[in-house]
Amino acid sequence: MDFLTLLQVLDSTVRLATPLLLACLAGLFSERAGIFDIGLEGKMLAAAFLSAAIAFVTESAWIGLLAGIGASMVLAGIHGLASITFRGNQLISGVAINFLAAGMTVLVAQSWFSQGGRTPSLMSGDRFEPVTLPFAEALSGVPVLGPIYDELLSGHTVLVYLAFAMVPLTWWILFRTRFGLRLRAVGENPAAVDTAGVSVVGLRFAAVAICGVLCGIAGAYMATALQAGFVKDMTAGRGYIALAALIFAKWRPWYALGATLLFGFLQAIALRPDVIEAVLSFRVQVQLLDALPYILTVVILAGFVGKAVPPRAGGEPYVKER
Amino acid sequence: MDVMPKWAEVLLVPLISLVLAFLISALVILGIGENPLNALRLMINGALGSAYGWGYTLYYATNFMFTGLAVAVAFHARLFNIGGEGQALLGGLGVALVCLYIPWPHWTIALLGAMGAAAMFGAIWAAIPAWLQAKRGSHIVITTIMFNFIAAALLNYFLVELIKAPGGDPATARFPEATNLPTFYDMFTPLGLSFSRSTPANVTFFIAILACIAVWALIWRTKLGYEIRAFGHSEPAAKYAGISPTKIIMVTMIISGALAGMMAINNVMGEAERLNLNAAEGAGFIGIAVALMGRSHPIGVFMAALLFGFLYQGGAELAFSTSIPSQLIIVIQALVILFTGALDNMVRMPLERIFLTLRRPPKPKTKLEAAE
Q: Is B273 in the same domain as B363?
């Protein structure tokens, strides 16, 4: 495999890892606050649809992004209502949200556009355009570093850079601010936070809302940057892969970057069977590559490669003692 | 402890949740510019108005009985098996292998063999997450979700590479004639009932009813069932009583997986008579809604499965004759899960308050009042 092919694979790794990374960080905020969220998939899907639909109508990717975040926030609100206010089962709520999004997106898309449950294709102006980093063209002649800068780092949409910037930001919020400390505390021992006079409900709703925003960006990226429009079930299990990455990353931001890049890489090479065959000199089943993120997660979960310990109060509604 | 009388717990709460779910579904239909009453009429006509409709409604209901029972059994041990879809897919693989490679003399024996294979494949697919939960502490919800995806990939591999019939799409060859199950048409025509020849409802429907009865007996009439329920109520208490958590988790999930896998005798052996990629068609997930609505009781599961069978067939007819896509059923399914599952307390809390007020005994008369 030559250098340029490697760069191409890594370049698509970055593109494919971006929605996983955003969704993974979204789940990280929620689960660190003690709210399990298997509804990442549904929130992404709803955001993907509405961002594409609104971007098509308004011809602005940015308004589309806002609409996508709004759609995701509505579902996050339902999840918060069910799992915080009414102390329902968070897993069941997540399942319901995934189905709600899967059904509603097609229903509304069909009603608005009558194109078999998809949005019309977005013209280049209605999508997020690739950003060329400064001097990318000029430096592309420099050996090794030039192509890396030009091919790999430059030329992504602004949402990709935003996603990667979210990693240090998430780390800083969670581990260097008072809000972050309280958010993590509410996921480990909500009674202690309550005793300190801080609202458990407020913190958990804040975490669920942040989760909604990030899933919204992830979905909008799928429909208005990675692809040009919404098609039925376009997230294709990415919410679950993000969930897998979250466990893989042991609920830590920097590990989340590593895990999502790994899963993004697996998706990227699954698209290039010729490259795999050239490198390994034997054929790897596509189905095996598809299943690999899930198999890896099961192995991690089984504790064969380090132990993944979730936040202690995760999944349990907080009941104030009377 | 029980604030509400039993009838309210068993009937009123699910009914109100269901009414809420349907009201919102009606709003959704209004929102996309159709008339909900008209839609309901079309659905009832399409699903229940003809022998053809019934043939499909009962076929779908059979699927949902198996997957609903699978989720319900696991719920009794407070285990959430989201893996019904994967277990049903693997059950299909078991049925296909048995039907294709064993020369069965008659459908009755073939059915027994296929049931065994379907149950075994489903059980194995559930046993791995169960073992990981019991021994390694991996969360069973996450592992069963992962196993759904792995099952889909595995089935894809089998159908594309190993047992694909020559020709276009990735599917097996048709099963031999001797393994074809009698449909309602074959069974009821001699009795004078005219079922449509082209509908898929078959003898499996009665096996599903037997499964409901068996699950009822298991949960409420056996020692194992008692242990499962005890474990579900309180793990420490069950441990203290000498019940092994490992055993309960394993056995419950194996039963659950076997039930989900057995769905395949209906959809793969009974209907398609071959195995294709999308064999389970989401029935594994509908099992969650069915179990929640049926309050994990076999009678409840039976009725909820009939309701979802009606919704499925009615929704298909609706998509056929109006511009409402069949995804409407997924929305209804989501709302049912949301209201009967996650938002249960939203319905329950106000009801409990009402019953508390009603039950409060009349104030005893004070001495002063008595003197007057």
A: no
Looking at the structure, do residues B97 and B213 belong to the same domain, yes or no? yes
Chain A residues touching B28 at Cβ < 8 A = 104, 107
Q: What is the pLDDT of residues B181-228, one digit of tens each?
A: 888 888 887 877 777 777 889 999 999 999 999 999 999 999 999 999
Residues B190 and B241 both lie in one domain: yes
Same domain for B11 and B74, yes or no, is no
Please list the rounded mean pLDDT of every run of 10 residues in chain A (322 residues): 83 93 96 93 95 92 94 96 91 92 93 87 84 77 77 86 95 95 93 91 95 96 91 89 88 94 88 78 80 84 73 82 60
> How is chain A split into domains, by residue range?
3-122+144-301
Among B89, B132, B330, B335, most A C-beta atoms within 10 A, so best to mutate, is B330
pLDDT of the residue at B216: 97
Contact A171, A253 (CB under 8 A): yes
CATH of the domain at B131: 1.10.3470
Q: How far apart are CA B96 and CA B126, in angstroms?
A: 19
pLDDT-based confidence at residue B1 (cuts at 50, 70, 90): very low
Q: What is the extent of the structural domain holding B21?
A: 1-34+323-372
Q: In this model, does residue B372 exceed pLDDT 70? A: no
Residue B52 CA, distance from chain mean position? 23
Which CATH number is A3-122+144-301 given? Answer: 1.10.3470
* Close Cβ partners of A86 (under 8 Å, ≥ 6 residues apart): B342, B343, B344, B345, B346, B349
Chain B: closest CA distance from residue A206 (Å): 20
Give SS3 for A129: coil
pLDDT at B287 over 80: yes
Rg over CA atoms, chain A? 20
A78, A96, A244: residue with CB nearest B146: A244
Q: How far off is chain B from A102, nearest CA to CA, in Å?
A: 7
Residue B51 lies in a domain: no
* Residue spans of beta strands (DSSP E) within chain A: 130-131, 156-157
Q: Which residues contact A162 (CB under 8 A, 6 or more apart)?
A: A217
